[in-house]
Design goal:
The complex is a heterodimer. Chain A is α/β, with parallel strands linked by helices. Chain A has helices at residues 2-25, 55-58, 75-80, 100-105, 118-132, 145-151; strands spanning 51-53, 67-71, 82-83, 87-88, 110-114, 138-142, 156-157. The mean pLDDT of chain B is 88. Classes of the chains: A alpha/beta, B mainly alpha.
């Protein structure tokens, strides 16, 4: 048993040494000292990172009373059509502490944010997650935004934002 | 077990690790990102990206071409790697993290339940080789 483990360790060490040597001489090798993980997946202090989920996976979270869906698009785009039961996130932007969205999040474990694209919603989701600062709140960005949701034929509705007071 | 079956297992598993190691070597930075995206040990992403591909290649080569005792050690090394890969994939699925598995380099598919099943099959095959070669003794390849 011991020789087996010793040989296994030798193989692993040889492999690691070869890998480190090859990485050192390669022009496109990874910098072991200066490498920093991609910002979009970095886990900031105070909670897990924002996750990106395709509509087909995100829809499984809908219907859960602990999930809040938030629309980060302009009011007009929201009024033209939005995910069923979604609240309009821009109405939370001026004062996160007083917004109905943030208040509603007190009873939620997951926030799904979407825009017209993934990248439109990501900074909004990141900012909200930082401001709320709850480690137990999972923040999810809908991949592809509302167009991907609609294209997938998932539930959506239209009309003005019931939660917002700023643009009534 | 028939020598032909043992050789098929060795060639299949060893060849697979050779291929996956080479694919990961093609884009070190991309593979480092794939490792970091697991959000398990982001500080170790660069070190793992630099070493894992070569470890896979060495283990794969040893499983195919090394003398008997070293082949068994290679099978155990692959089993250990597969145990780690399976745990990482399971962790990502449990946390609903939607990422590429990085199993075949940067162009790998997304992690899902099938990834875990595939990893478990490979883990079982590697452990099977460890046991088979023990039962067959040092002359297993003859």
């Amino acid at each position: 048993m011991v020789p087996l483990l010793a040989r296994t360790l030798v193989l692993l060490v040889i492999g690691a040494a070869v890998g480190l040597s090859a990485n050192a001489v390669r022009r496109d090798g990874v910098s072991l000292r200066r490498y920093s993980p991609p910002a979009s997946c970095e886990g900031p202090k105070g909670g897990p990172a924002v996750q990106v989920l395709p509509p087909e996976q995100a829809v499984r979270l809908c219907g859960d009373a602990g999930v809040l869906v938030a629309d980060a698009r302009p009011p007009q785009r929201f009024a033209e059509g939005h995910v069923a039961d979604a609240v309009h996130l821009p109405c939370a932007a001026p004062n996160a502490e007083a917004s109905s969205v943030v208040s509603a999040l007190a009873r939620k474990h997951t926030l799904i944010v979407y825009g017209d694209t993934t990248e439109e919603a990501r900074p909004v989701a990141e900012d909200l997650r930082r401001r709320i600062g709850r480690a137990d709140l999972k923040v999810v960005v809908l991949e592809g935004g509302f167009p991907a949701w609609s294209k997938a034929g998932l539930a959506c509705s239209s009309g003005p934002c019931r939660e917002c007071t700023e643009h009534r | 077990m028939k020598p032909a079956v043992r050789w098929a297992l060795r060639l299949g598993l060893g060849g697979l690790f050779l291929v996956t190691g080479v694919l990961k070597l093609r884009d070190p930075a991309g593979f480092a990102t794939a490792v970091a995206n697991y959000q398990l040990f982001p500080a170790l992403a660069a070190l793992l990206a630099a070493t894992l591909p070569a470890v896979e290649i060495v283990a794969g080569l040893a499983l195919i071409a090394a003398p008997g005792p070293w082949r068994r050690a290679a099978a155990l090394a692959i089993a250990l790697l597969m145990a780690v890969f399976t745990a990482a994939a399971g962790s990502a699925v449990a946390r609903h993290i939607d990422i590429s598995c990085g199993c075949f380099g940067v162009d790998s598919g997304r992690i899902d339940a099938l990834t875990i099943v595939r990893d478990l099959v490979l883990l079982a095959a590697a452990l099977g080789l460890v046991v088979i070669d023990r039962d067959a003794g040092p002359d297993a390849d003859r």
